Amino acid sequence: MMSGKSFLSPECETLLSDLVLREEAREQVAEAKGRLVKSVREIPEAPIVSVGDRVTSSLLENGRRPEVAIIDLKERRSVVASAIHLLSGYLLLSTSNPPGRITRESWRMVKLAIDMASNGFRVALVVDGEEDLLGFPATLVAPLGWLMLYGQPGIGMILVEIDDHVKMEAKQLLTRAFRPL
Predict the structure, then answer these.
(1) How confident is the model at residue 167 (pLDDT cuts 50, 70, 90)?
(2) What are the boundaries of each domain within the chain?
(3) Phi then psi for 105, rounded to 5 degrees?
(4) N or C: which end of the chain has fewer CB within 10 A?
């Protein structure tokens, strides 16, 4: 069995094995990891990675265009297409990521989307499966100073400001909460 530290490359840019969420860690992973924002006006000016259809739609409808939008065309497991029609001008990428997992392919595609956004493109990554856990690669791959926003069901938008401390906490939680497949 691979140790937790070995399923990530040293720079956290590559996942070395597909991962599955440990059942006993599900609640810990679901806890909010940033601060609640009630309005788009509370979000600082910085590049944004949005994770989730509702958050992405809310940002776009309120005049904030995330550099990277990670969506699965579902809200609470029900099919919707609310975010996709708002993504005019975005390059579209796609990946597959089953519920409760983070695949090597999806990690690579999140990195590609962020790299493309760092070069001036706006990118939407459409996930076949579930996008919720892709906040991990978004946090670990995004440049310092970027923001990651995701939805906390029943609460609202959670804002994570990417810094070294946040990256370290994300890596530690990833190591504790997942096991390689």
Answers:
(1) very high
(2) 4-21+34-180
(3) -60, -45
(4) N
